[in-house]
Amino acid sequence: MRFDEAYSGKVFIASRASYAEARAVIYGMPMDWTVSFRPGSRFGPARIREASVGLEEYSPYLDRHLDEVAYFDAGDIPLPFGNAARSLERIRDAVRKFLADGKFPLGLGGEHLCSWPVIQAVHEAYPDVVLVHIDAHADLRTEYEGEELSHATPIRKAVDLLGGGRVYSFGVRSGTREEFAFAREHMHFYPFEVLEPVKRVLPELAGRPVYVTIDIDVLDPAFAPGTGTAESGGITSRELLKTIHAIARSDVRVVGADIVEVAPVYDPTEQTPIVAAKLVREILLGWVK
């Protein structure tokens, strides 16, 4: 796979023309092969890019402009339809290349299982990496209906790989009794809320390499209805933006991130890809140093 050549499709606003000069690389993971409720997140990366054209390139929150950050949109990773195992291998190989080239990988999903091979690749590059997980769902099952490769399992796989002491989960408001019990016993678990608990733990994460995975369904469906498994009772888009800014203003060293589970077909208003695009802008301006 070649990602160092200009992508012929639509790109995220203000993307640079050269992979070599980029500090960060945006890439798409158009996969929804294992979803258990509503498919459609494979169309998320393209729609986030399209929605980005409506953004201002200046962030008044951070007083920074996209011209100040060199990033390259590598397009979508070509994934074999329906083949979860092979798709994950391709994602892992692509992110390994980005990291080996010194890039900050910023992934657009796709279902949340897509984050698992990214976490594996980041762990290879940063063996002491800490995972920050922001989501409505625990994703802590060992399998779902007999399938170990499921959008319900990536955070459990991450705990097994990294150790629960290096996994911080925020905003979760849905899961089995067993998942909640496991989370409380084996990892740093802050259900229901995001901003305030994130601010409390930032000092203990200072200086450490951190990977952040954001499932768009952490937002209440009033703010992001376009997702496969919407869950009422979530946070506001303003709170999620404030969380991104709190991390940006801290001493945490973010080494990569992703935003997953945008399923545009369920949102004719397009507010879900619009908010996702804004989150991408703030991540680029706040986390890519």
UniProtKB/TrEMBL annotation:
Chemical reaction(s) catalysed: agmatine + H2O = urea + putrescine
Keywords associated with the record: Hydrolase, Manganese, Metal-binding, Polyamine biosynthesis, Putrescine biosynthesis, Spermidine biosynthesis
InterPro entries with a match to the protein in the record: Agmatinase-rel, Ureohydrolase, Ureohydrolase_dom_sf, Ureohydrolase_Mn_BS
GO BP: putrescine biosynthetic process from arginine, via agmatine; spermidine biosynthetic process
Cofactor note: Binds 2 manganese ions per subunit.
Enzyme Commission number(s) from the entry: 3.5.3.11
Binding site for Mn(2+): H112, D135, H137, D139, D215, D217
Record keyword Lyase present: no
Taxonomy, superkingdom: Bacteria
One GO molecular-function entry: metal ion binding
Known pathway: Amine and polyamine biosynthesis; putrescine biosynthesis via agmatine pathway; putrescine from agmatine: step 1/1
Major enzyme class: hydrolase
Swiss-Prot/TrEMBL cofactor(s): Mn(2+)
Coiled coil: none
UniProt keyword Metal-binding, yes or no: yes
Family stated for the protein in its record: Belongs to the arginase family. Agmatinase subfamily.
Listed PANTHER family: ARGINASE/AGMATINASE (PTHR11358), GUANIDINO ACID HYDROLASE, MITOCHONDRIAL (PTHR11358:SF26)
Chain's role: Catalyzes the formation of putrescine from agmatine.
Name used for this protein in its record: Agmatinase
Species in which this protein is naturally found: Calditerricola satsumensis
